[in-house]
Amino acid sequence: MDNMIKVNIIDRQGKMHLLDAPTDMNLNIMEVCKSYNLPVEGTCGGMALCASCQVYIESETPLPEQSESELAMLDQAFYVKDNSRLGCQIRITDKIDGIVLRLAPESVKPS
Amino acid sequence: MIETDIIIIGAGPVGLFTVFEAGLLKLRCHLIDSLPVPGGQLIEIYPKKPIYDIPGYPIVNAGELVDKLMEQNAVFKPAFTLGESATTLHEEDGKFVVNTTKGTKHKAPIVIIAGGLGVFEPRKPPIENLEKFEDKGVEYIIRDPEFYKGKRVVVSGGGDSALDWSIYLAENNIVSELSLVHRRTSFRGHLDSVQKVMDLAHAGKINLITEAEVVGINSDGNGQVGAVVIKHSNLGDIVKDTDHFIPLFGLTPSLGPIANWGLDIEKNAVKVNTLDYSTNRPGIYAVGDINTYSGKLKLILCGFHEGTLAVQSAFARIYPNKKNVLKYTTVNGVSGF
Distance between CA B120 and CA B159 in Å, rounded? Predict the structure, then answer.
C-alpha cells in the first residue's frame, strides 16, 4: 500500500505485533502504538517529558539523532539501555520501514 | 476553614476558565493546586510552547494563555491555595470539605476536579523494597538539609536536582559522607554544576559512582536503611553502607489522592456523564484532561466546554428552585464580584 510502512513491536509479554503505519499523517511510534491499543501511556502527549513510551531498538534501522530533550528525559528514566529511545520522538517515515522495537517495562507508578 | 461555592481542584487552564463561567452565574470559586503558581501543565511543562488550537488565537504561548485566563477571570476574584495538594474529601452538613497536604480546609457544596495529569510527584526508581523504607532513610525530596547533618547519604540521579543537592550537602559539610550514583559517566545538568561535582569528587568530598545504579536496599536491622546495593556495569554489585538514600529523578504526574475519593476511575481518569461532566458522586464534577468518557479528546478547548456545562449543573444543584436562563456577555456584559 502507498504511504504505509511496517512497524514491528514486541510487547512486554514478548509477543510480536506487525503494524501498518501511515507515513503521511505525521505520526510517531508512540501514537501508532496507542492507535493499536498497545499498552503505551504517552502521558505527556509526545513532548519527550515522561518516558512512558520508552522502547528498545532491536533492528539496525538508522534513526535520526536524539534531541537534547530526549537525552535529558532518558537520563531521568529507568530501565534505560544503550538502545533506548522515546517512541514519541521517532517519526513514521519511509526510512524506518521494517523497524523492530521492544516496549520497555513500565516504570513503577507513584503511589 | 475556607468557604466558597465551588472548590476547583487544579489551577490549570480549564480550572481557570471554569472560574469565569462560574462567575457569570454568580458562583465564587476557590482553586487548590500542588504547584506554587497557577497554570498547571502549561507553566510546569511547556510555558514557552506555542498552542495553535485555541479559538481566536492563531498562535499563543502556553504561558501567555495562562496570563490571559487569569486576566479574564480576575473580575470574579478567584481565591487560591497554592503549593498544597488536595488530599482528603469528606461530607459535612451536606457540603464537601477538602483538606490539603498542609492541612488547609475548604468547604463548598460543589467540587470540580480539573486536575489535568494529576499531582506531580517524585519519580520513584524500580527498586523492589523501596517503599518499605520511605521515611525510614529513603526520601524523594530534600525538605531540610540539616536533617542530614553528620549522616552518610547516597544520592542517585543525573539531572539538575541530583547535582545541585549533592553540591549543597557536600560543600556545606552537612553530611559525613556523600555518594552520587549515576547511570552514565556524563551528566546532563548545567555545565557549571557538572564541573562543581567533578571538582568536589576530585577533592574527595563527593564519592562519585558512575555507570552504576542503585538496585537494592538493605535494612540496618531496625527497619531503617542500612546500606544500598549498587550495580556497577564493570565492578558488579557494591554494597555501600549509608543512613539515607535519596533518589532524585524529577517529577511525574499521577492521579494522586483523588483516586481514593470513591469516584469511578478508568485508565487513570475519572469517569463522567457527558450531560454535565458529573462523576458518580453527586456534587463532584471532573473536567479537562483528568476525566474520561466515550469520545474524550484531551484538548484545552474541550476542557473549556466541559467546565462551562459543569457549572450550569452546579448552579442547579445549589439553587434547585431558581430558574437559570443563559445570559450572553454581549448583551449583559460581565459584572464581577
Answer: 17
